[in-house]
Structures are given as structure tokens and as C-alpha cells.
Amino acid sequence: MQAFFWILIFLTIFFIMEFMAWFTHKYIMHGFLWSLHKDHHLKDHDSWFERNDAFFLFYAAVSIICFYIWNIEGVWWCLPIGLGIMAYGATYFLVHDIFIHQRFKLFRNANNWYARGVRRAHKIHHKHLGKKEGENFGMLIVPFKYFQK
After folding, report:
1. What's the predicted TM-score (pTM) here?
2. Rg of the Cα trace of the chain?
3. Residue 110 above 70 pLDDT?
4. Which domain, by its residues, includes 67?
5. pLDDT tens digit string along 39-51?
6. Is 126 among the domain residues?
7. Domain tally for the chain?
């Protein structure tokens, strides 16, 4: 029975992270921490790294704290929480940084309806270079209006 709850917690946390990514992006990145996020839109740097990359540290820290509590304190449900956060972070990195922004030259030839929709939606968000007026949505849950066959 514990395996069932472990999987349920993991999947719940993974999908809650989609909401957290949307919320963080809309109200924190395009809000009071715009100074860290704006280089992601404006490309006002010559480095491969962006100030925007600092945001992953927060979620990594939360995941690490969950692993610590599980390992040291024996709180079993902290493991699926930490793994759910980590799995979402890995998925986000794969989709956003590698697939969409091509920070590594992988998946360049992906051209199915989902790939085109995700890229189209993200491009529309990035056409707004300022803090305000960018459409905002999650990484995995993209409005259907962007998907055209």
C-alpha cells in the first residue's frame, strides 16, 4: 500500500510543480525578481549562463531538503516529494533549455504537432521583451490554440 501512496505523492508533486512554474514565472520572475529574469528575454549578456539560471537553485534546495529529511529523519513521504520536484526540474531543463532554447544542440529536428505547439507558444511569450504583457502558461500544459497540424 505504501508503494501506491509513494507513486501518488510523486505524481501529484510533479504536476503541482507545473502550477508552481507558472506561478513563479508570472508573479516572481515577471514581478519583483525581474532583474534576474530579464536577461532570459533580452539576451543582454555574452555568457552561456544567464542570471535567470539562479532560479533553479531554489527548487533544487527544496528537493535536497526533502532528501535530507527522508534520509536523516526517516520521513518516508519526503522522498517522493523530493524526487517529484527533481523529476519536474529535469523535465523542465530538457523541454525549456534544451528543446526550446537549444542551449545544447539536441532535438533540433523534432517537428511533430506537440513540438511545434510548444515552440510556437514559447516564441509568442518571448516576443514581449519587457516585464509586462507576456502570455504565460506552464511548460507541459500549453493552450490548444498553439497546436496546429
Report:
1. 0.79
2. 17
3. yes
4. 2-111
5. 777 766 677 777 8
6. no
7. 1
